[in-house]
Design brief:
9 strands; 41% helix; homodimer; NADP (chains A, B); Rossmann fold; alpha/beta; NAD(P)-bd_dom_sf (chains A, B); one-carbon metabolism (chains A, B); six-stranded parallel beta sheet
Chain lengths: 288, 288
Amino acid sequence: MSTTRTAQLMEGAGLARRIIEETATKAAEISRFTGTAPCLATVLVGEDPASVTYVRMKRARCAKAGIQSRHIPLPSTTTTVELVDTIAALSRDPGVHGILLQHPCGPHIDERAAFEAISPEKDVDGVTMHSFAAMSFALPGFVSCTPGGIMQLLDAYDVELAGKHAVVVGRSAILGKPVGMLLLAKDATVTYCHSRTTDLPAIVREADIVVAAVGRPRLIRGEDIKPGAVVLDAGYNPGNVGDVDFDAARTRARLITPVPGGVGPMTIAVLLAQTVQAAENQLGLQER
Amino acid sequence: MSTTRTAQLMEGAGLARRIIEETATKAAEISRFTGTAPCLATVLVGEDPASVTYVRMKRARCAKAGIQSRHIPLPSTTTTVELVDTIAALSRDPGVHGILLQHPCGPHIDERAAFEAISPEKDVDGVTMHSFAAMSFALPGFVSCTPGGIMQLLDAYDVELAGKHAVVVGRSAILGKPVGMLLLAKDATVTYCHSRTTDLPAIVREADIVVAAVGRPRLIRGEDIKPGAVVLDAGYNPGNVGDVDFDAARTRARLITPVPGGVGPMTIAVLLAQTVQAAENQLGLQER
């Protein structure tokens, strides 16, 4: 018997692959049945290299899964009004089933206004106010992709949530806030921590489930992980470092996501799955 | 020096009176300036005695503050479609500035669909998905009235929130969830507890601020209140009993709301203030 326990890895990469395979099967069925492939519109403002890479990666994954994508690159001089008009037109376009606005869009853009031009039924990235409220109230709708991926990981690894204390570190509109609401809907007791939290380690020590979503390398120390806790690290910092000190945390946690290969791959899997779901809904093929 | 401390009372009744006075002054100015009084539409389905009383009380308060109200009583046989149509018509009616749907509406009504027929700019009761997301993302919009009242009490009594641990007991769509989001927006560390929470007393013991919003008489024991904590009791149970054991809690808390006369009166004050604000906005008199 070893005195050093080692957590089981929550292998998002593998789960994401299975989800994408299922999604591709469905996309092929939709194409065969209706003559129309699911279509994701990707909107990119400017030429930020990281954003260009992200969009290219997402489109490549779409293509592999039998999802068409329609790319709308806009100059960095695009105004909020122009961007809103472009997105509103995509919302009305019956040939587009899902809309992804790559963000950040730049400081001169009112990003919230741009997001809100996405109609809820095409909000496959889960960024609208409607989608957030739907997640919060357990109503039908699309989820934010990373939170959705985290919930699927928890489900795949049979993590019980009801009555457990989940600590979410981070409170962004598309990650921390919605994942907390999704956990609350599953009857977890949920604590939101953030940069202003006074004694983060003390709160983390109480957590049965830790979701790190803050973007600060190794902010969460292994020694603060409660033995047997479940740790999901949505942080992705330079040098493939998460928000959790992985090496130390894995000696205490029961389940932990690696970085990379944990939460990250789930995000795009949820995006693709929701795009196909949106196409099903809009083409009148609801099966769920 | 006494060994028994006694908390200062957070007197919602007095604060509400001041807010309503200011609101009445504004309403009178609006009427004088535009010839149009602010108008709240109240919609009531059926004749549940408690609901009838609540609506009558709200209308009486409106009248005293110089706010017109237009009452739309609907038979208990009203369908969701009919209710949605009625509310949608009020949303389009330029003579109506705010809309209040008294709820619960009865089990045969899709209450969410009815709420969503209220246009966000007339959602003075803060019940729509849009208003919830606006509260969550600190965007302009109306707040749910009881959460808004709680935040105004905290402000009036100079309670610092940044970095403090706020424990919200209850997770309803118009009380627990939004008040947690408003506290989070003020940089509190926020924990949502509810009926499935495993060890509520242990969590309450960590709270600098306790918001009780669950409707279970004296669920929160005085002995679990951290010395010096701030306690807001939005519970209102038969016999004028809150969700907190007031007599025991006041010996430990620094500030506490009485029941009645604490949070309760603030709810209607916020409703009236937001109705006048809505009229200002819609009549082109924005001053805030």
